[in-house]
Specification:
The chain is of the alpha/beta class. The protein has a domain of 136 residues: P-loop containing nucleotide triphosphate hydrolases (Rossmann fold). It contains ten helices and ten strands. A hairpin with a 2-residue loop joins strand 9 and strand 10. Helix 3 packs across helix 4, helix 3 packs parallel to helix 5 and helix 4 packs across helix 5. Bound molecules: adenosine-5'-triphosphate and magnesium ion.
Length: 264
């Protein structure tokens, strides 16, 4: 079995008196594709933000590749190989697709101190190469000259993933990568995630259960900031507590929302 690459111990995040993450013990092995699911407000995005160093933990510990990184600033975690794509695509709309990818690549290359990267011309060449590789992975090379803000919703989300990939991560955190996508876009992104999972460890937050049950090696369920259950897709699907957590949130919400065209 492969080594644990990332783990947390008692990880807690408080906003005032409210605990968005409460005593989370978690580990993921190298090469695993792990889903993190749970009803709205369960604390999933907060958990990823703590892992990526986007916000500091209140207490507890995060370890990555054997080292404690709990207090390490976000950019230093990126340099160590942790990258996050955002729930709402976080791209630069007025720049081109290629310029966007270059920003991610620049962050990577600036973190390299090998002598061959110290010469500016070599460095810029490397930036372009990494940016192109990232765009190729998400199938956006042909749109490199387009204004990022003019992309379709699905392409914007994939560009956000490319920005994360351009930092050449060993672990990629994807926060709702298929939210709001058409069926075709979901299928395309499903194929992309499977491809990425062959190259790196992937943690994915998603509400699309068909996608999650199809691609995950294992699933962690968060509920009210705590780990409610963990297991294979089959184990999670059969788990009574998980079904109840979802009945308390999503499913009831969906039932309460009238179908399109339904009479008030
Ligand atoms: N910066 C913040 N300040 C105060 N409360 C916050 C902040 N960020 C999140 N919260 C609260 O923490 C809880 C967990 O939020 P979080 O965004 O992590 O949930 P989530 O599981 O990602 O939900 P969703 O599925 O809707 O994206 C929510 O009650 C939210 O309102
Ligand atoms: Mg969220």
């Amino acid at each position: 079995m492969s080594d644990v690459i990332l783990s947390t111990n008692g990880l807690t995040k408080k906003f005032g008196a409210f605990s968005a993450n409460s005593e989370i013990d978690f580990f993921v092995r190298e090469g695993e594709l792990r889903a993190v699911i749970g009803p709205n407000g369960a604390g999933k995005t907060t958990f990823f933000n703590l892992l990526a160093g986007i916000m500091p933990a209140t207490s507890g510990e995060i370890r990555f590749k054997g080292a404690e990184i709990t207090r390490l600033p976000g950019p230093e975690r990126v340099a160590r190989g942790i990258a996050k794509a955002f729930q709402t695509a976080s791209i630069y709309p007025d720049d081109t697709v290629f310029q966007n990818a270059r920003l991610g690549a620049l962050a990577r290359v600036q973190g390299m101190f090998a002598p061959e990267f110290l010469k500016p011309s070599r460095r810029l060449g490397k930036v372009d190469e990494i940016a192109n590789e990232a765009l190729a992975l998400v199938d956006l090379v042909s749109l490199g000259g387009e204004r990022a803000g003019d992309l379709s919703h699905g392409d914007k989300k994939r560009l956000d993933i490319a920005l994360a990939l351009a930092t050449q991560p060993t672990i990629l955190l994807l926060d709702e990568p298929v939210a709001g996508m058409s069926i075709e876009e979901v299928h395309k992104t499903d194929r992309l995630i499977r491809l990425l999972a062959k190259r790196m460890t992937v943690l994915i937050i998603e509400h699309d259960m068909d996608l999650i049950m199809g691609i995950s090696d294992s699933i962690t369920v968060l509920h009210q900031g705590k780990v409610l259950a963990e297991g294979t897709p089959a184990e999670i699907r059969a788990n009574q507590m998980v079904q109840e957590a979802y009945l308390g949130g999503h499913v009831q919400e969906a039932l309460a929302t009238p179908a399109p065209g339904a009479k008030p």
